[in-house]
Specification:
Blueprint (H helix, E strand, L loop, with lengths): L10 E5 L4 H12 L3 E6 L6 H13 L4 E5 L5 H13 L4 E6 L20 H24 L3 E11 L11 H20 L6 E7 L5 H4 L4 H11 L8 H12 L10 E4 L8
Parallel strand pairs: 1-2, 1-4, 2-3, 4-5, 5-6, 6-7
Helix pairs in contact: 1-8, 3-4, 4-5
Length: 264
């Protein structure tokens, strides 16, 4: 670690830790001194990547415990929190980076191809409401450090529209609202909460969005740096925001995008 880099400590709980922003942030926080609790949902084919992440974290001399469970499942959430409690540790940082939702239009010439109530409910539950439930569980069981941090990954979809993105847009708007409410209610515990709005980033989640190639092309042209945001850009920003004095920053949607959002 370079002398001018911020040294961190404590445990980080990363929801969505096996790829994209969650993976990069897990590794960056470990490099800066934090131990990592990861929650992910992977099948056998992608488990080798999870094993690599865990090995890298432990190779830095940090502790890493990853749970292959559905983060939106109430019983699994309770089990993970019970495991954390059994370790006698507290969480300094909670990151919500769950990207699992339905990409269907609201209106379709064939009604059966349009978004269903079940799909809408699932998308908002996983990508927005689960943040509240995890926070409630941690606070109720006294597993959050005073002075802790909460980060939730949002996107420009919270205020813009793309075909088939409606349910995810609704989830991102709800997520930002949840962050504002949590920042108010957790202030007495000195826990800050912020949404992180990354610029267009080439992640597995982005690649699932129809028309992602055009989004990437436009972002490269629009961004003042003429490149995409990277997961490392976001991980480094989260590490900086986790430094002690930055706790006064709360209730915001913070753009980490090289100026992309204002260059339109």
């Amino acid at each position: 670690m370079a002398k001018d880099e911020l040294k961190l400590s404590g445990w980080a709980l990363i929801l969505g830790s096996s790829s994209g922003f969650g993976e990069a942030t897990s590794l960056e926080l470990a490099r800066r001194g934090m131990d990592i609790l990861g929650v992910h949902l992977d099948r056998r084919a992608t488990l080798p990547n999870v094993e690599r992440i865990v090995a890298e974290i432990r190779g830095m001399g940090r502790q890493a415990e990853f749970f292959n469970v559905n983060a939106a499942d109430e019983e699994k959430r309770k089990q993970v929190c019970a495991d954390i409690a059994s370790r006698g540790v507290k969480v300094r940082l909670l990151m919500h980076s769950l990207a699992f939702g339905t990409l269907r239009p609201f209106i379709h010439p064939e009604p059966k191809e349009g978004l269903t109530k079940q799909q809408m409910d699932m998308t908002l539950d996983v990508m927005a409401h689960s943040l509240v439930y995890w926070t409630q569980e941690l606070v109720a069981n006294n597993l959050f450090e005073e002075g802790g941090r909460i980060y939730a990954m949002t996107s420009t979809g919270s205020g813009r529209v793309w075909a088939t993105y409606g349910a995810v847009s609704a989830a991102k708007a709800a997520l930002e609202s949840h962050i504002r409410q949590l920042s108010l209610e957790l202030a007495p515990k000195k826990i800050s909460a912020n949404a992180i709005l990354a610029g267009v980033t080439d992640t597995p989640a982005l690649r699932k969005i129809p028309g992602n190639e055009k989004m990437i092309e436009v972002a490269r042209e629009r961004n003042p740096y003429k490149r995409l945001t990277t997961t490392q850009d976001v991980a480094s920003a989260i590490a900086a925001l986790t430094y002690g004095p930055a706790g006064w920053i709360t209730g915001n949607t913070i753009c980490v995008d090289g100026g992309e959002e204002i260059s339109g």
